[in-house]
Amino acid sequence: MTTRLSAAHWDIVEKYYPHYYSSSTITLIDILTRALDGEAISPNDEEFIQGWDVAKELYLLEREVWRVAVKNYLLNPLS
Questions:
Q1: Which of 47, 36, 42, 43 is nearest to 1 (CA)?
Q2: Residue 7: helix, strand or coil by DSSP?
Q3: CB 16 within 8 Å of CB 72
Q4: DSSP string spanning 11-75?
Q5: What is the pLDDT of residue 76?
Q6: Nearest CA to 36 among 46, 44, 26?
Q7: Widest distance between CA atoms in the chain
Q8: Are 38 and 29 in contact (CB under 8 A)?
Q9: Which of 13, 31, 36, 62 has the fewest Cβ atoms within 10 Å of its own Cβ atom?
Q10: pLDDT of residue 1
Q11: Which 3 state secondary structure label does DSSP give 77?
Q12: Residues 48, 66: Cα–Cα separation, whole Å
């Protein structure tokens, strides 16, 4: 369950995930990624994710974002 999306996957997500740049889900993925990678996150973010299985939540969120992006690609491949 630890497989993360590659840079190529993220290129597709960025293009086909709705409202990518203002998505709270994308923001949460960024926070969880930084936490999992040992990078600094804000105290508020630390408190928010306290007690979470960060790797599991990140996996589930990335898979959902990928699913939505691929669905949108298949519906609008020339976008």
A1: 36
A2: helix
A3: yes
A4: HHHHHHSTTGGG-HHHHHHHHHHHHHTT----HHHHHHHTT--HHHHHHHHHHHHHHHHHHHHHH
A5: 83
A6: 46
A7: 42
A8: no
A9: 36
A10: 58
A11: coil
A12: 24
Alpha-carbon torsion angle 26, 31, 34, 35, nearest 10: -140
Q: How far apart are the first and last CA of the chain?
A: 31
Residue 2 has what pLDDT?
Answer: 61
Profile the chain (79 residues) by mean pLDDT over runs of 10 residues.
83 95 97 96 97 96 96 83
Look up residue 8 and give its two tokens: 């190529």
Specify the pLDDT at position 4. 87
